[in-house]
Write a structure and sequence with these properties.
Blueprint lengths: L2 H24 L3 E3 L8 E15 L6 E18 L4 E16 L3 E6 L10 H7 L6 E6 L5 E5 L1 H11 L4 H6 L5 H10 L8 E3 L4 E10 L3 E17 L2 E15 L11 E13 L4 E16 L11 E15 L1 H32 L1
Antiparallel strand pairs: 1-8, 2-3, 2-14, 3-4, 4-5, 4-6, 6-7, 9-10, 10-11, 11-12, 12-13, 13-14
Length: 350
């Protein structure tokens, strides 16, 4: 017997098996569908950064930057084959805005005593804490109801009397808009079927923007990879979408606005537990619209608005959220101690 030839054949077989194993993983089909574990609770932070560049105005170009971080507890209150109840409870709200007419304004409910805190945001953020939104899902995962936003809006109304920012924000704060933000759009990620690497699916959403019309986004999702992490099956999904304007609105006989845009992003989904682990996205919009009286126009001239949006979403355990709060308190205490030390040193010099 030729030992060399036999060893070579065995080695070749091993190589073939090693090469075939990754192919089997790549061909694996995985169910991408939300799962609900009774009484499961985790903390979610969603941060959105927006930059608006407005040109064509009588006063020249204006750049406004705004960021918002919303922290909510996501808790499965009950689940059965017929119905699931999911509750989202606000635990943190952080706002920041840089505006050429108002300067820099910011407020964080995790640091409420900050000397730089802006009351205009504090009046909006603090009433949200502890307030809950409830979503109910049917047996096939469809959203049956979404409630709770009216009570939140009423609570802010009572605190933010004559607050100009709140007057603007409240226009789009209702059950339909919030259900779209928290449930309908993020969960387009779930095709509710088994997929393999390279598979894709399409979905769309429509957002009612009171000032200009309905913004439609047509998405295409694609499975980039399926991986094993710490015994869990993790699916990486990328997406891209095109934005367009439907039912454009305009005052009187003024020309209607136009909009075009695009979005890209990716999400990490744990198929073993049935939950999203993280998500990021960017949106680019270009809007052409008449200049209204509030912007110094008469409706005959037009302005161009370029909107850039970055969104990220992370999740924490209750212990990690507790540690985050402790770190925020320590940071605030150190800031106060440093300020006291500076004031003491300044008084000695005097």
């Amino acid at each position: 017997m030729n030992v060399m030839n036999t060893t070579t054949r065995h080695f070749g077989l091993i190589v073939v098996l090693l090469l075939a194993t990754p192919l089997a993983v790549r061909a694996e089909k995985v169910l991408v569908q939300r799962k609900y574990t009774p009484n499961a609770k985790r903390y979610m932070e969603t941060e959105t950064e927006v930059k608006q560049t407005i040109t064509g105005l009588p006063m020249g170009t204006i750049v406004v930057e705004f960021s918002q971080l919303l922290g909510t507890w996501e808790e499965v209150k009950s689940t059965s084959p017929e119905k699931t109840e999911l509750v989202l409870t606000y635990d943190r709200a952080k706002h920041r805005m840089v505006n050429p007419m108002m300067g820099t304004l910011e407020f964080d409910t995790d640091d409420p005593d900050n000397e730089e805190a802006a009351p205009i945001f504090q009046q909006i953020a603090e009433p949200m804490l502890g307030m809950a939104m409830k979503a109910e899902f049917g047996s096939s995962g469809e959203l049956i109801s979404f409630k709770g936003v009216d009570a939140i809006r009423e609570k802010i109304d009572a605190r933010a009397v004559a607050n100009p920012l709140w007057m603007h924000f409240k226009e789009s704060m209702n059950d339909d808009a919030e259900s779209r933000k928290w449930i309908k759009v993020p969960w387009l990620l779930f095709p509710n079927k088994k997929v393999r690497r390279g598979d894709s699916w399409k979905a769309s959403s429509v957002e009612d923007e009171p000032r200009i019309g309905k913004i439609k986004t047509d998405y295409e999702f694609k499975v980039d990879s399926i991986e094993k992490r710490d015994g869990h099956t993790v699916v990486i999904v990328s997406f891209a979408g095109a934005l367009s304007l439907e039912d454009a609105k305009a005052e009187g006989d003024a020309p209607k606005p136009t909009l075009e845009g695009k979005t890209v992003g990716h999400a990490t989904f744990d198929a073993t537990t049935g939950v999203v682990l993280g998500r990021t996205s960017t949106i680019e919009q270009n809007i052409d619209a008449p200049i209204g009286a509030e912007m110094g126009g008469d409706g005959t001239k037009r302005m161009q608005v370029k909107v850039d949006v970055k969104t990220s979403q992370v999740f924490m355990t209750p212990a990690e959220r507790d540690a985050q709060k402790v770190a925020a308190k320590k940071k605030a205490a150190k800031r106060k101690a440093d300020e006291a030390a500076r004031e003491a040193a300044a008084s000695k010099e005097e």
